[in-house]
Specification:
By secondary structure, the chain is an alpha+beta fold. It has one domain. Helices cover 66% and strands 8% of the residues. It is globular and about 65 Å long. The N terminus and C terminus are likely disordered.
């Protein structure tokens, strides 16, 4: 199996009591059951950006990958919740499960609306109240800084929750297993313990890059818009104008993340990725060996490799 520099790119995500891993051809989700055993769901899947040439173009692939990650994340989180609560699920009727599924979808829609409101509209309102809306650079520095502060506070608050802390432990296990694989080391607990839980290709770093590019990009955009058409009537109109451009910023952020990961050994790039790695202190926690075992199983299943063919020992 190829590993190290020649290894296929692997991505992952922490799920409820487990880890999801994705290789170029397969996805595998593994969950630790209350009994201590693990259960796995694996399926063939080619990334949307690899299915059509146009979707794989730079910048476009970033927006497409983000949309796919959201869909896949919801799918695997829903599955992990079902298997983690298997006994309760068995006691529910099909009608109740259908209502639960609809409730989850509605909750996600509400969550997206609230996220846009909290991280976009409210910072715009605050910057407007501070009378900065006539100076676009100052406006977006205030709004962008407020957005980042809100994000940090939000992460800190949820990181205090017991269930979220466990999710963040699995996030750390995911990173450690990927690091072991990318370095060409065996996926043993000993090897994984030596690895950092902070990975430059993490979604947390991606969100920070998005926040910074939103700030910088809309300084330029709004300076041009207000010079041509005049000031925005209010913060809501500004948000409505900006929303269609968020996929473009997501695509640019994806490209920045790829470049920073590729050159993460460079001293210059280490300075650039340092804030994103520091932010992962909030979104990851040191995992235990049972959590590393789940991440290892998910990674090997995604690669369609038997554990015994890759490990000299399975402690």
């Amino acid at each position: 199996m190829p590993s190290g520099k020649d290894s296929p790119r692997i991505g992952g995500q922490a799920i409820i009591e487990g880890v999801m891993m994705r290789s170029p051809e397969r996805i595998s989700a593994v969950v630790r059951l209350p009994s201590g055993e693990t259960t796995c769901k694996t399926w063939e899947s080619k990334a949307w950006a690899r299915r059509h040439k146009l979707l794989g173009l730079p910048i476009v692939r970033g927006a497409v990958s983000l949309a796919e990650a959201l869909v896949l994340g919801i799918r695997t989180l829903n599955w992990s919740a079902e298997v983690a609560l298997a006994q309760e699920q068995q006691e529910r009727s099909k009608k109740q499960k259908r209502r639960d599924s609809l409730g989850l979808t509605a909750s996600l829609v509400v969550a997206v609306v609230l996220a846009v409101g909290l991280f976009m509209l409210v910072p715009y309102e605050i910057a407007t109240l501070l009378k900065t809306d006539r100076q676009q650079p100052l406006f977006h520095l205030v709004a962008g800084s407020t957005r980042i502060v809100f994000f940090l506070v939000y992460l800190w608050i949820i990181s205090q929750l017991k269930d979220v802390r466990r999710l963040f432990q699995y996030h750390g296990a995911e990173h450690q297993s990927i690091f072991s694989y990318e370095k060409g080391e065996e996926l043993s607990p000993e090897s994984m313990r030596r690895q950092s839980r902070f990975h430059p290709r993490c979604g947390t770093s991606f969100l920070l890059i998005v926040a910074l590019l939103v700030m910088a990009g809309f300084i330029v955009f709004d300076t041009a818009v207000t010079a041509w058409w005049g000031a925005y009537p209010n913060a809501l109109i500004r948000l409505v104008v900006h929303l269609p451009f968020l996929p473009l910023i997501a695509g640019l952020s994806y490209e920045v993340l790829r470049v920073s990961d590729r050159f993460s050994d460079s001293a210059a790039f280490q300075l650039l990725i340092a804030p994103g790695l520091a932010l992962q202190r909030l979104t990851t926690r040191p995992p235990d060996d049972s959590q590393r075992e789940v991440a290892r199983e998910a990674l090997l299943n995604a690669l369609d490799v038997k554990a015994e063919t890759h490990l000299s020992s399975t402690a």
